[in-house]
Amino acid sequence: MLSRHDISDDHWNRIASLLPDQVGGHGGVGNANRLFVDAIRYLAKTGLAWADLPTCYGKPNSLWQRYNRWCQRGVWAKIAAELRDDDTEWL
């Protein structure tokens, strides 16, 4: 069951192929990426500081480092472009 902060299956299916593999990842990369995206959504929706993220998402500094790498690689821009809804763009 998804929490209200988790990405929907539909949206996940639309962005999963845009996400980089984790270096040294073994089989669980897709699940790790999804949990990471959920962590970022949680931060964005709640306004919490990185250090206050629930421990189920991982270590705050590791999450921030990964977030920063994805920013530098343009991953978040690709995600935003894929999930953009032209019908609600004006919001």
* Overall average residue pLDDT: 85
Shape: globular
| pLDDT < 50 stretches | none
Number of helices: 4
Largest sheet composition: none
> What is the terminal separation in angstroms?
28 Å
Question: Strand content of the residues, in percent?
Answer: under 5%
Radius of gyration: 13 Å
Order of helices and strands: HHHH
Helix content: 40-55%
Overall SS class: mainly alpha
Number of distinct beta strands: 0
Summary of the model, kept short:
With 91 residues, this protein is mainly α.
Keywords summarizing the entry:
single chain; 91 residues; mainly alpha; 4 helices
How would you characterize the overall build of this protein?
The protein has 91 residues and is mainly alpha-helical. Helix content is 53%, strand content 0%. The radius of gyration is 13 Å and the shape is globular. The model has no long low-confidence stretch (mean pLDDT 85).
